[in-house]
């Protein structure tokens, strides 16, 4: 089982009111019907995420292009964004003193 299937399998999609959909594979080389479906979902570029209501119509569209996307619930999306924010958070600056210890003693 690859990582995306494992990632999608842990989400109880039926219970979530909103779905966060991310396009993870490229559009070139896909069927015209799949391109039209992605266009209807407003997914035009890779690694872009859109939020859609969890309706049978949207779930049917997602089923059609499931190999190109990753589906997340609201909790999963917020947890992922929080993890990314923590990873990119500013760290305290390193202060390095370039003066040798003996130079400050001789003054």
Helices and strands, with pairings:
Layout lengths: L2 H7 L8 E6 L8 H9 L8 E5 L2 H9 L4 E5 H14 L13 H6 L1
Antiparallel strand pairs: 1-2, 1-3
Structure overview:
The protein contains five helices and three strands; from the N terminus they run H-E-H-E-H-E-H-H. With 107 residues, it is α+β, with helices and mostly antiparallel strands. It has a three-stranded antiparallel β-sheet with strand order 2-1-3. The longest helix has 14 residues, at 74-87. It starts with a helix and ends with a helix.
Which terms would index this structure?
single chain, 107 residues, alpha+beta, Ribosomal Protein L30, Chain: A, 3-stranded antiparallel β-sheet, 42% helix, structural constituent of ribosome, Ribosomal_uL30_bac-type, Ribo_uL30_ferredoxin-like_sf, ribonucleoprotein
